[in-house]
Structure formats: structure tokens, C-alpha cells
Amino acid sequence: MSVRAIVDDYADRVPVLDTEANFHGNRVVYLHWEEHLSFCAALAFPLPPAMPWGALLEQIIPTYYGMHPDFKKIDWSQVKWTIDGKELTPDPAKSLEENGVRHKSLIRFWTPGLNGYNGANA
Amino acid sequence: MSKLSLKQRYALMTRGLDWETSYQPMDKVFPYDQFEGIKIKDWSKWEDPFRLTMETYWKFQAEKERKLYAVLDSFAQNNGQLGITDARYINAIKLFLTGVSPLEYQAHRGFAFAGRHIRGVGPRIASQMQSLDELRHAQTQIHTISHYNKFFNGFHDFRHMHDRVWYLSVPKSFFDDARSAGPFEYMIAIGFSFEYVLTNLLFVPFMSGAAYNGDLATVTFGFSAQSDEARHMTLGIEVIKFLLEQDPGNLPIVQRWVDKWFWRGHRVLGLVAMMMDYMLPKKIMSWREAWDIYFTEAGGALFEDLARYGLRVPKYADVATAEAEHLSHQNWAIFYQYTQAAGFHTWLPSDEEMDWLSEKYPNTFDKYYRPRFEMWRQMEKDGQRFYNNALPQLCTTCQIPMGYTEPSDPGTICFRSAEYKGEQYHFCSDGCKDIFLDEPEKFAQSWLPVHQIFQGNCGGADLGDVLKWYRINVGEDNFDYGQSQDKKLWDQWQADRHKVAG
Asked: What is the ipTM of this complex?
């Protein structure tokens, strides 16, 4: 469907606010640690597409998830990843883009054996 | 001059004031009432059960307003703010003033637009009156709440905040969506879906919450608005019946609007859910109970009545009902961890409050939500009160952080997405995704606060810059209630009272 508007060329008149070009060289990337819902939603970051995946692991994730009691127990070799619903084993030396991260991609990760405070997905 | 009967006067002062234009074609004078596809054959079929003329309207309202302001004066003179149950309560009022009162003003603008652009004189007059009602409601709420601004933080810049602050974009975008639609969709969105189907879930809990918690000022504006609300509900039901009776082709259009605005309204009312279950020191009923009474029962009867026109219960009403078990907990969790960026305070529920929640939500609270609160309580004890330091992913349609879970799995976030013109868009629910797919050109323009911050349009890159741009005063308006100036002041008042009482 499309919008019913009083003008025929509505779609051509309106600005799309969140195209990649508006983010000054960054891409919006969403990150979500599954079964840890004390982080209420996926987290959003503006990241350069050329940033290595390893920087996500070494800088971003520990900074924003490190306060959770499960965090220290994560065995990173066991972690399961999806980008936009596709399973993959990311290469830390390659960039986000080379690993398949697009603008507004959603990266979800599961940490087997760890499912939140008291096992309650918290 | 002999006196006219009520009916005659109404006919002369409403229908009698209308005319067919001759210098310009009617279609040019009323350019907005056809593009939505709604067909009206006979405007004179519009029934106004209130038969109110503008002259009587002014008399009634002036009298009501005089009473309201007298009560407000006495509330202020008697330091009514001392009579509330606890200063935590005031945070519900902060949310109301910043989130809801500006909507009254938006409703005023919207009904003024509908009143100007609908061709039939009956609904035009009704819209004009509702437009004035909404303007009065905005005013009386601002006057009422201004008293609290003398004592508590977070009230100082509600207008400025409404257009900027991340969570206020939720109610703001709701009304922006309605007001940028045509006049008929606006009437269904606000007049029917909001004022008729959902309004009791907003006003009844707020006003009984205020009464239970000693906030006589808020009770007063609530009562004052009540007689207007009855008229608004009548307009809402009349507009839907009128559209459905006029042409069978109107049904699918109206049904689409009912589906859309039910879901959008349900999302906005999540703020009320959280207020009822978490923000009122003295609780009235749970959100779940309110939903059962005001939507499942009352709404069920309404849609049974409307079934004779072919209208069915809004799509995803069953999902909304299932969500009633989760909504308030998930919303409070969002605000608890982002209260550093909010214009009001949050706190963890006490043991008694958690027990109340367990009792009201036997299927969900202990299993899914109590552990979260216990974990955060432990963190607070360790001096590590939890604040989420990254920004959340937002739903493109409702603009709420994507914190809602799968309808069939409360342990997993509900992620939905869609492509439009090569761009990816994200949604919190099937309801929000459907709304987007119906009008992608419209929602591709969503002003999502998180993305706007990243684009550099909100004062700067770090939280301090953004809060300055919001005009949220750091250390006064935000952070946990436990460390707030509000609490300090309240505790001081209580201590002074004990001293006086000896």
C-alpha cells in the first residue's frame, strides 16, 4: 500500500531522514545480547563501516555490557552470532562491512550457558 | 421577539448558519474532504445529540472555569502539595504535563483543522467545540500543574521538551501522524479510537490515581474536563456510525484507520500502564485490571454494537490484551535504565510493591520481572546503580525503545523489519510494522531521537550536550529518585511536620 495524499507526488516531496548519507560516514549498527533483558532493548551505535569486527568485541561490547554479572563468564569461542537474521562466524580481522554489516543492521549474539541473572533472562 | 425552542434555536444557530458557496466551487473551498476516499452522500443525516449552540457553550464553560480556578486558588493557598502521599507521585504528573498536556493543544489544532475542512455543518460545529475544549484543557492543566513547578523539578520547560526529548517523541509523533492525515482519518484517530475506545484507560486511572494520592488539583481539572469528554465520546461514536452509514465503500477505509489507531493508541498508553503499576505510591488497580474493564469488556460491547456495520474488532487487539501482562514492567525497565536522560525520576519497587505486582501479575511478574529488579537492587547496594550508557534501538513507527517481547516468548525481544526503497526499517511489533507498510512514504520521515542525536542535530554528541539541548537540568530533573532534590525537600517537609506536631 501507499499513503493517500492530497498531492500525487507525495513520495517525491518528503525527506527520508535516516539514509546512510546523513550519518557523517558512519552506519547505524544495532547490537543485542540475547537472554539478557536487563538491557531493555538492542543498543544503537554510529560506527564506521571500515571498523574491524575485533573493535566491536574489544571496545564496544565490554564498555556497554561489561557491568552484567554474566559478562566475565562469556566464552567468546562459543558465542553464536546473527546479522539481520543470518547466522555467521564473524572474522575479527575483517571490517564490519566485510562481515556483512549494512546500514541499520541488527547484530544479535547468544552466549550459550549464560541466560541472565538467576537464569531468568534478566 | 418570542423565545425560540431549543430545537429551533439549535437549527438556526448551526444548520442555519451554513450556505452553499457561489463565487467559488465548494470543492475548492473544501479541498481536503475527498482525497481520503470517503464518500458522503447526505451531510444532513449527521445527528448531534447534544444540540449545543456556541452561545450556550460559552455560558457553560465560563461557569465551569470559574469553579475550577477557585478550587485551584484554594489548593495553592492551603499548600495542597503537602497533602500528596509521597513526592514519588509527582513524577507521574511530570510525565502527564510533558507528555499529555501538549497533546491537548495538538488536539485543539487538529479539531480546528477538521472543523474548517469538513463540508457538513453538523460535524463542523462539533469539531469547533471540541477544538475549544482541547485548548481549555491544555490551559487548565498547565495552570494546575504550574503550582507544582514552584516546589519540584522537571516542570520548567514542558513545551520545549515536548518537541525534543526522546520519550516525548512517542506522544508527539502519535499526534503529528494524526494531524498530518486528512480530516476524516483525524476524526477516526482522535475522535473515535482515542476519545471513545481508549480514553477511559487514560483519564480514569489518572484521575483516580490523583484522588488516591491526595492530588486534589489534578482531580479538579479531571472533573472539569469530564463533561466535555462525554461530548467528545459522542462525537467519536457519531462520526464512525455516520461514515459507515453513508457509503459501503467507506468500511474498508475506516477499518484500516481503526486498526492503525487502536494499535498506535495502545502503544502510547503504555506510559499510563507504567504509571499505574510503578509510579503511584498508593495504587488503584493494575494496568491488567484496567485493560480488562475498559478495553476487553467495554470495548468488546462497543465492537459488538458496531458489527452490524461490518466493522470488526481492531487487528491485534488480542496481542494488546496479551501484552497487558508485560507492558508496564517492560516500560518501567526502559525508564529505570535511561532515567539519566529523562525529565523525571525513577526508582526500584519496594518489597511490598513487588509483592503487590506478584499478586496482580501471577503469570509473569515473579518469572520474568522480579529477577531484573533484584539484580538492579543488588547493583544499587554495591554502589553501581544501573544506567544503560548506550542509546536504545527505536521502533520506526511508535518510536519507543524496542523493549517489547515476542507475543509467544517473553524471554526474547520482538524484532520486526521491512525494506522500503533499499532502506531497512525496524519495528517493535507486527502492529507497528503493518502501519509502516501501509504508508511507508510517511514513516520514512520519522524523526527518531536516537538517529537524530547520531546525525548531530540534538546539541552535540555526548549526553551532557543532548540534555542541555533538551533543557533537562543535570542533577535536578534526572537520575534516581533516591538521590533527588525532590526527595530531599519532601523528607524535610515531613521532618518539619513531625517537629511541629511535637
From this structure: 0.98
